[in-house]
Specification:
- This protein has 922 residues and is mainly α.
- 60% of the residues lie in helices and 3% in strands.
- It has 40 helices and 4 strands.
- The protein has a 4-stranded antiparallel sheet with strand order 2-3-1-4, with helices on both faces.
- Strand 2 and strand 3 form a beta hairpin.
C-alpha cells in the first residue's frame, strides 16, 4: 500500500505546492514572485472577500426595511446623516474579515496587481459598517493613486460620492458625480451603478425628471438583477410623481411580474391597481380589486396598507366619510408598522381639519401622528408645525364659518332669524359627522365648531367644568361680581372707551389676529355670558345692511388670505396655498388682496406650471403696474434698491433729529423739506413732516403750527404713527385756542424726547390702567404677508430649570432689545413716544432705557396683565420698521413680566429668556 501511495504522488503537485508556499512567505520584486502574489491575492483574498460581500448584501436584502410611502433609495443605505457623527462602526464578522483580507493584500502582497482592489475592499467594508468618513478617504486615495485605470477611477469616485451623500455633504458629492460622469464617457461597461448613483443625487435634489433619465439608463445597462428591479420600482415611483401615469403603470407591472421581493411585489401591485383606472378610460371598481388582496393569506401582514389605499381611493373621489372609516381600519390593523399607523392618523387629522371642520378631533390626531411618525419622514417638520400652530389656522377657519353662518341667517326672512340664531348659539352635545365644506351647511349644524369628542360625558354630574351646570352657574356669578354685566365684545374689560376704539384692531400684520376671534371650542365665552344677551348681540350684528355685509365679507377675505399665506410661507405647501388662493378669488374676485394673490400664484406655479405662472405674472403687470409686486417682477433688484433707499432715509432722519435736539430749527425745516421732496412715498415722510411742524411751532405762532398739522392730516390720512398724534394735538389746540393765540411761539417748552403743548411737570407715579386703544381708520394698503405664528415647542425634560418664572404678574412690559450698545436711540425713542401718544393717549404709557454691556433695552411700562401686553405688541410690531431708526436685524421686541425683566443682566440672559418665552407666554 505504501509503495503504491508513493507512486501516485505527482511530482508536478509537489513542485506547485512548494512554489505556493514560497509565494505565500516570500515578498520579493521578481517576476516569479509577482506572479504568485497575483495568484494568491486574487484567489485567496479578492475572490473570498467578494464572496463575503455578496453574502452580506444578500442578508441585508432580507433584513432591510423599506418605507414604501417614500421614494425608495437607489441602494440599501440608511438615510443620510443630518449631523456628522463619527462612530467606530457596527461590528460584523463578514465585513471585519473583508477588512483583514484587504489589509493582508496591502501588507503582504505589495508587488501584486490587486492593491487598488484591496483599497476598494477596505472602502466598501467600512462603508457598509457605517464608517463613511473612513470609507471616503479610502476611495479618495484609490481615485488619486490609480487614476490611470479608468474603471478603478470611476468605481472609486462612485463610492466616494455615495459616502459623501451619507455624510450629507451633498454639494461635494454633486461635484464628485459630475467629475465621474465626464470621465465615464470613455468607459464602455460597468456604468450601471455610477449612473444609478447620479440618479440618487438628483432624487435628493428633488430633480425628478433628471433622475428618471438616469434610472432609465441604469436599468438598460448590465447590473445585478435585484438592483435593476429595485431601480425600476423607483423609476415608476418618480414617473407617478411627475404625472407620467402610463409609463409608471408599465414599470409597476414589470416589477410585479419580476422576481421582486414579496413586499416590493405587493406595493407594485397596489400601485398598479391604483393607476389602472387612470388609463382604462372606464370606471373600475378599484375598491373591490384592493379588498380582493385581503383574501390572499400572503397579504395578511399588509392588511393595514390595503385599507389605507382604499381610504385614499375614497378620499380622491370625495367620499370622505368612507375614507375615514377605512383609515380607522388601517389604524386598527397596524400592529407592527408604526409608520403606516402614523400616516393613517395624519389622513384622519387632515380630513377632520379640512373637510369635517372638527378642529378638536383634528388636533388629537395631529398630536398622535407626531408622536409616532419617524423624524426622517418627508414633510415631518411641516406636520409638527401644523400641529403646533393648529390654533392659528383654526381661528381663521372659525371666522369663515361664523361669518358664512351670519350671512346665511341674514338672508332669511326677519321672522325666521331668531330661531336660527338661537339654534346656532345653543350648545349641542351630539357630534354630527359631515363631509361638506365651509358654506351654509352650518345652518344645519349650528353648534359648529362647539363639538365635544366625549359626548357621553355631557351630564350634570360631570367633573369637567363646562359640562357641569353648577360650576358654570357659580363661575358666571363670580364673573358678574367682579365685572358686572359686560357685553360679549372686544376689550370687554373696559367700561369707558374712546370713539376711535370701535375700530380698534391690530395695526399691523393680519387683521384677523385680534378680530374678535372666538376660541375653537367656543365654550368659555358661551358659558361666561348670558345666553339671551349673546343671542341679541349676534342678531344685532347680522350683516343685514350693505355696510355690515361688506365688513363681514372683509373678515372672510382676510381669514382666507392669512390661511393661504401660512401654507405658503410657513409650511411651504404651495399646492394647498394655491387651492385657498383660488377659492378666495372665486368667492371674492375683486378682493383687496388681489395683487398679492396674483403675485403668490405666479411664484408658486413657477417651475411647475409655467403657463399658469406666466398667466398670473401678466395679471400683476397689467392690472397693477404701479405696485411693488410688478416692480419686483420687472426688476429683481428692486427690493434691494428700496432697502438701500430706506437706509438712506433713516440716516437722513437721524441727522434731522439731531438738529432738532440741538434746537437748530431752521435746519430741521430745511432737511424735512429736502427729504420729503426726495422720498415723497417713504414711510418716514409723515415723521419728517412732524419734525418740521414741531420746529415751526418752536419758532412761530400757532397759526403756522396749525397749517403744518393740517397738512399732515391731509397728506397722510392713513398713517398710524404720526397722524393719530397730530389729530390729538389739533383737538387740544382747538380746546385751548385762546391760550395758544396769546403765546409768542406756539410751543413754549422743550424736551427732546417728549414734545408737548403745555408746561411739563415732573413725572409722578400713576396707577396702571387697563389698555385703551386709540387707532385710526385702517389703511387700505397693499396686503402684507401673514404674521408668522409662534411655534409651540414641547417641554424638554432634560433641559435645566430656567431662572425665569411663568407665574402671573401684576405688571408687564413690552421690551425692544437693540443688540448694539454703541447706537444712539434718541430718534427711536422719540418714535415710540409718538406711537404711544397717538394710539394710546389715555394710558399714560412711558418708555425707558436700560443699557447693558452689549445691548440696550427700551421698555414700555406698564400693562396690568399679559392680555393687554399682547394687544400692545400686536399693534406696534408692524410699525417698528418705521419707529426704530436702526437696522432691522439689530432689534427684537418681546413681552416680559416686571419680575423677569429684573433678571435681564446681559446678552446670554436675554437669549435664555427668549427661549423661555417660546415655551410659556406664546
Amino acid at each position: 500500500m505504501k509503495k503504491n501511495a508513493n507512486k501516485n504522488l505527482n511530482p508536478f503537485i509537489l513542485l506547485f505546492s512548494a512554489l505556493l508556499i514560497y509565494g505565500c512567505v516570500a515578498n520579493k520584486d521578481t517576476a516569479i514572485d509577482r506572479r504568485f502574489q497575483n495568484l494568491t491575492a486574487r484567489y485567496n483574498y479578492i475572490y473570498n472577500s467578494n464572496v463575503l460581500l455578496t453574502e452580506y448584501n444578500e442578508s441585508l436584502l432580507q433584513s432591510y426595511a423599506d418605507n414604501y410611502e417614500k421614494t425608495l433609495p437607489v441602494y440599501l443605505d440608511p438615510e443620510p446623516q443630518v449631523n456628522l457623527v463619527l462612530t467606530p462602526g457596527v461590528a460584523n464578522k463578514q465585513l471585519d474579515d473583508v477588512i483583514t483580507k484587504g489589509q493582508t493584500i496591502i501588507n503582504d502582497k505589495s508587488f501584486s496587481n490587486y492593491i487598488d482592489d484591496a483599497y476598494m475592499l477596505l472602502g466598501k467594508a467600512n462603508y457598509l459598517k457605517g464608517n463613511y468618513f473612513i470609507a471616503s478617504e479610502y476611495f479618495d486615495y484609490t481615485a488619486k493613486t490609480y487614476n490611470s485605470d479608468l474603471k478603478t477611477f470611476i468605481m472609486a469616485m462612485n463610492w466616494k460620492a455615495r459616502s459623501q451623500m451619507q455624510l450629507n455633504n451633498m454639494v461635494l458629492a454633486d461635484k464628485i458625480i459630475d467629475t465621474m460622469l465626464r470621465a465615464s464617457d470613455q468607459l464602455k461597461k460597468d456604468l450601471a451603478e455610477p449612473v444609478a448613483t447620479a440618479a440618487q443625487m438628483r432624487i435628493y435634489q428633488k430633480r425628478n425628471k433628471e433622475a428618471v433619465l438616469f434610472l432609465e439608463s441604469a436599468i438598460a445597462l448590465p447590473a445585478e438583477k435585484q438592483l435593476r428591479i429595485r431601480w425600476r420600482f423607483i423609476l415608476a415611483q418618480l414617473q407617478e410623481k411627475e404625472k407620467n401615469i402610463e409609463d409608471a403603470y408599465a414599470n409597476f407591472t414589470k416589477v410585479e411580474k419580476s422576481n421582486a421581493p414579496f413586499e416590493m411585489y405587493f406595493h407594485a401591485n397596489l400601485n398598479r391597481i391604483k393607476l389602472k383606472a387612470f388609463l382604462s378610460g372606464v370606471k373600475l371598481n378599484k375598491e373591490d380589486q384592493l379588498l380582493a388582496l385581503l383574501k390572499d393569506d400572503k397579504n395578511f401582514d399588509y392588511t393595514d396598507q390595503i385599507y389605507y389605499q382604499v381610504g385614499e381611493l375614497f378620499s380622491a373621489e370625495g367620499n370622505f366619510i368612507k375614507a375615514e372609516e377605512n383609515y380607522h381600519k388601517s389604524v386598527a390593523k397596524s400592529t407592527r408598522n408604526q409608520t403606516q399607523k402614523a400616516l393613517s392618523y395624519l389622513r384622519i387629522a387632515d380630513l377632520n381639519f379640512k373637510e369635517f371642520n372638527n378642529y378638536i378631533k383634528a388636533k388629537l390626531y395631529y398630536d398622535s401622528t407626531v408622536m409616532i411618525l419617524p423624524k426622517n419622514f418627508p414633510d415631518y417638520d411641516n406636520i409638527v408645525k401644523k400641529a403646533d400652530n393648529l390654533q392659528y389656522l383654526t381661528d381663521r377657519y372659525t371666522i369663515i364659518a361664523r361669518e358664512d353662518t351670519a350671512q346665511a341667517i341674514a338672508k332669511l326672512p326677519a321672522d325666521q332669524r331668531e330661531a336660527k340664531v338661537k339654534a346656532y348659539l345653543t350648545p349641542k352635545v351630539e357630534v354630527a359627522n359631515t363631509g361638506g365644506v365651509i358654506n351654509n351647511q352650518f345652518l344645519n349644524d349650528p353648534d359648529f365648531p362647539n363639538k365635544s369628542l366625549n359626548t357621553g360625558n355631557n351630564v350634570a354630574g360631570s367633573t369637567f367644568y363646562f359640562n357641569n351646570n353648577a360650576a358654570i352657574s357659580s363661575g358666571f356669578g363670580d364673573f358678574k361680581k367682579r365685572w358686572g354685566n359686560r357685553q360679549f365684545e372686544d376689550n370687554w374689560r373696559q367700561s369707558v372707551r374712546s370713539s376711535a376704539q370701535e375700530t380698534s384692531q391690530v395695526l399691523a400684520g393680519g387683521k384677523v389676529a385680534t378680530d374678535n376671534i372666538t376660541p375653537a371650542n367656543g365654550q368659555t365665552n358661551t358659558a361666561a355670558s348670558d345666553q339671551t344677551s349673546l343671542e341679541k348681540q349676534f342678531s344685532d350684528a347680522l350683516p343685514v345692511t350693505p355696510a355690515l355685509l361688506a365688513t363681514s365679507d372683509q373678515k372672510i377675505i382676510d381669514a382666507y388670505f392669512e390661511i393661504a399665506s401660512f401654507y405658503q410661507q410657513e409650511l411651504n405647501d404651495k399646492p394647498e396655498a394655491n387651492k385657498i388662493y383660488l377659492e378666495l378669488i372665486k368667492r371674492y374676485p375683486d378682493n383687496n388682496h388681489l395683487v398679492a394673490i396674483y403675485y403668490s400664484l405666479y411664484l408658486n406655479y413657477k417651475g411647475t406650471d409655467e403657463v399658469k405662472s406666466d398667466q398670473y405674472k401678466q395679471l400683476v403687470l397689467t392690472k397693477f403696474p404701479e405696485s411693488n409686486f410688478a416692480k419686483n417682477i420687472l426688476d429683481p433688484s428692486y427690493s434691494a434698491k428700496q432697502t438701500q433707499m430706506e437706509n438712506i432715509a433713516i440716516n437722513n432722519y437721524n441727522v434731522a433729529f439731531d438738529a432738532y435736539a440741538k434746537k437748530d430749527y431752521p435746519n430741521v425745516v430745511k432737511q424735512a423739506d429736502d427729504n420729503i421732496s426726495a422720498f415723497p412715498n417713504n414711510d418716514l415722510a409723515p415723521q419728517y413732516a412732524y419734525l418740521k411742524a414741531i420746529a415751526v411751532g418752536r419758532t412761530a405762532k400757532v397759526d403756522a403750527l396749525l397749517t403744518e398739522f393740517n397738512l399732515i392730516t391731509t397728506n397722510y390720512p392713513n398713517d398710524k404713527i404720526i397722524t393719530p398724534l397730530v389729530r390729538d394735538h389739533l383737538k387740544y389746540i382747538e380746546t385751548n385756542l385762546d391760550e395758544f393765540k396769546q403765546r409768542p411761539v406756539a410751543l413754549i417748552d422743550f424736551d427732546a424726547n417728549e414734545p408737548r403743548f403745555v408746561s411739563q411737570a415732573a413725572p409722578i407715579a400713576v396707577p396702571t390702567k387697563p389698555l385703551v386703544v386709540e387707532n385710526p381708520v385702517t389703511k387700505p394698503a397693499e396686503p402684507a404677508p401673514v404674521v408668522k405664528p409662534v411655534e409651540v415647542k414641547p417641554v424638554d425634560p432634560t433641559k435645566p430649570a430656567s431662572i425665569f418664572s411663568s407665574a402671573k404678574s401684576e405688571e408687564y412690559y413690552y421690551v425692544i432689545d437693540v443688540a448694539d450698545a454703541t447706537l444712539t436711540l434718541s430718534s427711536s425713542r422719540f418714535g415710540i413716544g409718538q406711537f404711544n401718544r397717538g394710539n394710546y393717549p389715555d394710558n399714560d404709557l412711558v418708555h425707558k432705557l436700560v443699557e447693558l454691556d452689549n445691548d440696550q433695552l427700551i421698555y414700555v411700562t406698564s400693562f396690568i396683565d399679559l392680555e393687554d401686553a399682547k394687544i400692545y405688541e400686536s399693534s406696534i410690531t408692524g410699525q417698528l420698521k418705521n419707529i426704530m431708526k436702526v437696522p432691522a436685524n439689530l432689534y427684537k421686541g418681546f413681552i416680559i413680566s416686571k419680575e423677569n425683566f429684573e433678571k435681564l443682566t446681559d446678552r446670554s440672559r436675554i437669549n435664555e429668556y427668549l427661549e423661555f418665552l417660546k415655551d410659556n407666554y406664546k
